[in-house]
Amino acid sequence: MATIISQLPMQEMRLLQIVAGVVCLVTGLLAWRKGYSFFLWILAGGVIGLAVLAFLPFVNKKTTSKEEREEQKGSRWFGNIIGAIISAATIAVLWIRLSRGNT
Question: How far is CA 51 from CA 8, 45, 86, in A?
């Protein structure tokens, strides 16, 4: 797959970079809208990040019960940890690929 991407013409490569950037931005905005951290989810873009985020609950609903607030707090923490792990994995993969010279 890396060799296929590296053989793309410059215009198609630029378009691929723009699409990837938009997908990452959409993932971050969707996370923010659901009550999670924009910054922890922005690099978790792509099919995996969007699929995981789709199954996470909204945690920014107004609740009156202390029990529900505590549950939302735990869900927010769990969701942000998942986003951070996916983002860290993305950074690690990019770091490895760039250090080997495979872009």
Answer: 27, 10, 12
Residue 28: exposure state from Cβ atoms within 10 A (0-12, 13-18, ≥19): buried
Q: Please name the residues in contact with 5: beta carbons below 8 A apart, sequence gap of 6 or more.
A: 13, 16, 103
The arithmetic mean of pLDDT across residues 78-82, rounded, is: 94
pTM value? 0.76
Average pLDDT over residues 27-38: 93
**Cα–Cα distance for residue pair 83/79, rounded to 1 Å:** 6
Which tokens hold the place of 90?
């993305």
C-alpha–C-alpha distance, residues 61 and 7, integer Å: 47
**CA 25 and chain centroid, separation:** 8
